[in-house]
Amino acid sequence: IIGGIVVLAGIALTGIVPGLRLEKLLDGCAMQRMRGWQWFAALMHARGPAARLLLGAVMGLLPCGLVYAMLAAVAAMPSPFHAALGMIAFGLGTVPALTAVLVASRALHSRLAAHSTRLAAVALICTGLFMLGRSLVVHEHDHHPAAATHEHHAM
Q1: pLDDT tens across 26-64, in order?
Q2: pLDDT grade, residue 81 (50/70/90)?
Q3: Residues 11, 96, 116, CA angle at the centre, nearest 5°?
Q4: Is 37 left (phi over 0), alpha (psi -120 to 50) or beta?
């Protein structure tokens, strides 16, 4: 289902379907509601380092599938200390990727600014199709008679 929603968001971003707007898809989203709050809108437009730090802290409270997956993983760890270390490692592990995105966006900004919406739409559509394809392959494998026979012989 999520893969389909991601594809739909990419299609909405392209603007090729009249009346389908990304804002309508995000209507109930926490981020969309927060944009209407005056203090949050001011924080989004502030440029100082303290404002950016505070914005990052607030954004950390928004729902994120990767964070939820990691929280589920660390919940199985033997102690709260180990879980905290796991979350710290996860947070630090995102720094290189996020830094690369920041550096690339600044370096390519002038060249890609005109095409950024189209590139984002294509990335969303490709990601959504990948997610759909993966779920179909896994689902098909679970119900394939040969897979069940193989598992039976392996036991």
Answers
A1: 555 555 566 667 777 777 777 788 888 887 777 777 667
A2: very high
A3: 30
A4: beta
Among all chains, which residue has been given the structure tokens 């990691």?
70
Could you give the angle at which helices 38-45 and 49-59 cross, rounded to 10 degrees?
A: 130
Sign of CA dihedral 11, 12, 15, 19: positive
Report d(CA 126, CA 132) in Å as an integer.
10
Q: How many residues does the chain have?
A: 155
Alpha-carbon distance of 98 to 105, in angstroms, equals: 10
pTM of the model: 0.45
CB burial of 68-82 (b: ≥16 within 10 Å; e: otherwise) equals: eebeeebeeeeeeee
Could you write out the DSSP letters of every residue in 88-107? HHHHHHHHHHHHHHHHHHHH
Kindly state the average pLDDT of the residues 15-29. Answer: 67
Distance CA 26, CA 22 (A): 6
